[in-house]
């Protein structure tokens, strides 16, 4: 087995193996199955940053947690307009694995769970401030572009 072949190992959900001597790590795939792959190498810092907050929702989740501090799931869902519950759960899990978001479960009934930024996530949120300022400055111009069509 060589090249791009994957080796499957089954671990309890929520466990993560990292920094193996051969330069591989484990990534979440379909429930409790983990797929062993080579670590990703990036050609520049922007590529690495976009790998963590790429997509439509992660940036908005990051930004709302930066502005609002620790938020409960329902508050976060209301703050990120248009996101489905399923998508929010999926994005939060990925952000937890990337150590951008911390999840605190108070083990109460009804469930009380809060999400907050880790130190790593707060640093990333701070790095996005200039991009948000640029977007705010040009919001009307961007909205009028022919590529920007309401869904």
Task: Report on the architecture of this protein.
Helices cover about 40% and strands about 20% of the residues. Strand 2 (about 25-30) and strand 3 form a beta hairpin. It is globular and about 50 Å long. It has helices spanning about 45-55, 60-70, 75-80, 85-95, 120-135, 140-145, and strands at about 5-10, 25-30, 35-40, 70, 100-105, 115. It contains six helices and six strands; from the N terminus they run βββααβααββαα. The strands form two sheets. A three-stranded antiparallel beta sheet has the order 1-3-2, with no helix packed on it. A three-stranded antiparallel beta sheet has the order 4-6-5. It has two domains: about 5-40, no CATH class; about 50-135, Winged helix-like DNA-binding domain superfamily/Winged helix DNA-binding domain (Arc Repressor Mutant, subunit A, Orthogonal Bundle), CATH 1.10.10.10. It is α+β, with helices and mostly antiparallel strands and about 150 residues long.
